[in-house]
């Protein structure tokens, strides 16, 4: 027992030091929310492209949309990134990105009248692949209502992105809409 104590004590010290030097925001294969937020701010401008849908409703919607426009702006003294999907159209939607402590929050103001909120999955995101997971919302019951449940932004080249939005209804995935966009400004 006396020989085991120094080993256990050494391990406890190692874990304590690791916890102090590398808090939860320090991720071996992840991203920092503030760095991602700066990256989003640098994307300000007008983006155009085409949608691609997976799932019956998303496929039909993509076909109807044709060419799409997304406008990204920095607002509120640099504390918010606002993305307008389909500005001026009957189905205009707004995505607001902001920091909340060590987290990056995305709120999707949907044409359907609900506002799902997502948080950046820092552990699984990379600088070229941002993943946002559902964290709640207003005007929706995720077990019943149709809503956007996840989002993903992939950087696919200079001034090109793929913006994907996963739709859920009755607690299950029912579609995916991906916008292949190129920066115009």
Q: What is the mean pLDDT? A: 86
Q: Can you tell me the CATH superfamily?
A: Calycin beta-barrel core domain
**Topology as H/E string?**
HHEHEEEEEEEEE
Radius of gyration: 20 Å
Spatial sequence of strands, sheet with the most strands: 1-2-3-4-5-6-7-8-9-10
- Structural category: alpha+beta
CATH top level? Mainly Beta
Based on Cα principal axes, name the global outline.
globular
Low-pLDDT stretches: 1-28
CATH architectural name? Beta Barrel
Residue fraction in strands: over 45%
Largest sheet: 10 strands, antiparallel, barrel
In short:
The protein is an alpha+beta fold and 185 residues long. It contains 3 helices and 10 strands; from the N terminus they run ααβαβββββββββ. The termini are far apart.
